[in-house]
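User: Hi! Is it possible to get a structure for several chains at once, not just one? Here's what I have:
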Amino acid sequence: MDKKLPLALKVNDLDNVATVFSNEAKAGSDVEVRDKKGNSFVMQLLNDIPYGHKVALREVHPGEDIIKYGESLGEATHEIAAGEYVHVHNLDSKRGRGDKEG
Amino acid sequence: MEFWGYVRENGKVGARNYVAVIPTVVCAAEAAQSICNSVSGCISFLHHQGCCQLPPDLERVTDTLIALGSSPNVGAVLLVSLGCEGTDVDRLMSTLAATGKPIDMVRIQEDGGISASIALGISKAKRLAALISTQRRQPVDISNVVMSIKCGGSDATSGMASNCVIGYVADKIVDAGGTVIFGETTEFIGAEHILARRAVNKQVGDRIFEIVNNMEARAKSLGCDMRKGQPTPGNIAGGLTTIEEKSLGAIMKSGSRPIQGVMEYTDMVTDHKGLWIKDTPGREPEILTGMACTGAQVMCFSTGRGAPQGFPSMPVLKICGNVNTYQKMEQDMDINAGVIITGESSIEQVGEYTFERLLSTLSGEMTKSEAIKYFNFIDIYTMGPVI
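Assistant: Yes, the chains can be modeled jointly so their relative placement is included. Here is the combined structure:
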């Protein structure tokens, strides 16, 4: 690639999100998604994504697990498209939920 | 491999040689601080406990202060007592005296009140400081290292850079016959199954699930979502969405070696070798105290947002995973692990450098938090209410 694209790292082959490490990851721009083996591909972002935040690598449906490190981070609360920003607005924890008990 | 340390009478090895001026109760903290500020080579533990607590907590305060005073980084102890506290001052005095360290005491209600006790405390602390100043470092094997580890002010870089560096160093210490202690039970939530698989036996694995269940029950006790308490607003702004995500990144710092067992908050390292868990919350003032209680000579502390904490008796080496933070806070960060994210260095390269800096810190090199004296206030993790 001639131009250096914003970088996103995918930790585990099972992951459906990658973490963006760039201050220039804007809606409509491309990011380079790289895995631990050095394989990479380019994908387009649907939203602005801040440094250290997550982008969906594929479509995720409500109730489905968001996976990073090959493990569950919790479940999607909305339809999530590939290239979409994943954070507190569409990902909920399943743990420490005193609000869901009693 | 060796470092230069102070060999104590009980065979433990210290990386520092302080006079610890220990208030036995919060009401004695002002006097202890004044004494500490007036005499070279002194540190204090300015905590908020020791009175109007339920008996198990009072016992915990006594045990904590015993463990802090027993640290091999402490060469002598001056207790500053009020006189009517709930802490067991007699047990504190006799247990610390049995370590063979020089120990002395002032009692504010007996010795003429605050100002007279400060004056008396200064003269006593001066004597202790002079007494231990003749002790010399000597080369000792690295198997004597007890390293505590912790992450704080985490963001998405922590689990992918700085915690991985600490994990690399932790494996090296374990392989060299040393001891590594990690904690933050809250930050096992969602990752406990991975830790339990690394337990040496089923009993230890079950205990890991048990301490996580207890911590989660504590978090749920007010009937709300724990988010904002854990993960914190800073974690969330840094890209960590859920406690599961924070935990999966946090456990990276424990490396890959088997987990030998679970220590309680005030437990000290005796013949513990290898990798151990200490059951603690995640918040710095309480966990750093719990880690110092083990007798750890040093702490490796990973951060992404820029946590500046130090601890009075235990040097804290800061490893920063976020290049933006490192640039802004180089004055407080000892090591830049952000170069792993940018691809300029590998985990192994930064890990080897961190290991060298660890040995140098153990041998006397000041960390940045020591240089700025970021260590006046500590806290003790208690279980029940103040009454």
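Chain B touches chain A at residues 155-157, 159-160, 189-191, 194, 216, 219-227, 230, 236, 238-239, 241-245, 248-249, 304, 322, 324, 341-342 (CB under 8 Å). The radius of gyration of chain B is 20 Å.

User: Great, thank you!
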